[in-house]
Amino acid sequence: MKKRVLSLFLAFVLCLTLLPTSVFAEGADGSAAAGASTEDNGQSANTGKSEQPNSETDTRTEIWCVGKPDSIGRGYDGTTDGSTIPIDLTFTDGTDTFTLKERTGFTAKKTFDSADAGRRTVTVEIELIGDAAAKYKLKAGEETFTIGGYIDKAHPDLTVSLSKAACTVGEKILPLLSVEGAPEDAAVTYYYTQYKSIAGDSDYEGNAIPAIDESTAISSLDEEGNNTYYVYAKTAATQNYEEGRSTTVELTVNEAVVEAASVTKADGTVSGTYTTLPAALNAAQDGDTVKLLANHTTNWGDVEAGEYATLAVVRKTLTLDLNGMTVDYLTVGDVVPDEAGGILESYDGNLTVVDNIQGGSHGKIKDLEFVKGSLAIQGGQIGGCLTCNGNSGSVTISGGTVLGLTVGEGAVVTVNGGSAHAGTWSNDGTLNITGGTFGNVWFLNNGGTIAISGGTFGTITNANGSGPIPLMPLLANGYAFYSTSDNTYTSADNQTTLSSVRPRSLTSRTMRRRMRTSASVSTNTFISIISHSSWLAKIRMPSTMMTGAGCTVMVLSLRLWIV
Question: Cα 443 vs. chain centroid, distance in angstroms?
Answer without folding.
Answer: 48
